[in-house]
Each structure stands twice: as structure tokens, then as C-alpha cells.
Amino acid sequence: MKKNNEPGYTLKSVEKSAPPRGFQEGEWHSYTLVRGKSEITGVRSDTLKAVTKHARELAETINNRNGWTTV
Questions:
Q1: Could you count the other beta carbons within 10 Å of the beta carbon of residue 39?
Q2: Distance of alpha carbon 3 from its chain centroid, rounded?
Q3: How many beta carbons lie within 10 A of that of residue 52, not counting itself?
Q4: What is the pLDDT of residue 3?
């Protein structure tokens, strides 16, 4: 896919969070990806380091699919 040079999603934050309703206790973190006024928020059970890595990789995957650049 040809790059269109539009800025893509970047990682805004990763924070410790409560587990989603119906899920077991554990080490949960929420993350937020941003692109302009658009936000994607997710929740994952893992270490802070692992969730941060996952969120960055997710942003990269979305950006690559759409031909957006990363900052």
C-alpha cells in the first residue's frame, strides 16, 4: 500500500486498571492510542511492559494497514 503521509496512531498512555466485569483479578492495564481526535482504548491483563509493547505494536499494525506514517 502506498504511504499517504497522514499521521497515524500513537500511544498516549498506559495505566493500571481494574479488570473488566466478569474477568478474574490480576495485573490489568488500560491503554489509549490517539490519532487527531480519534482514540482507541483497550484493556489487557499483563505487565506494564508487555501491555506497552502490545499497544505500540497495535498502533504500528493499524498505521501500516492504512498507509499512515508513525511519529
A1: 11
A2: 21
A3: 17
A4: 59
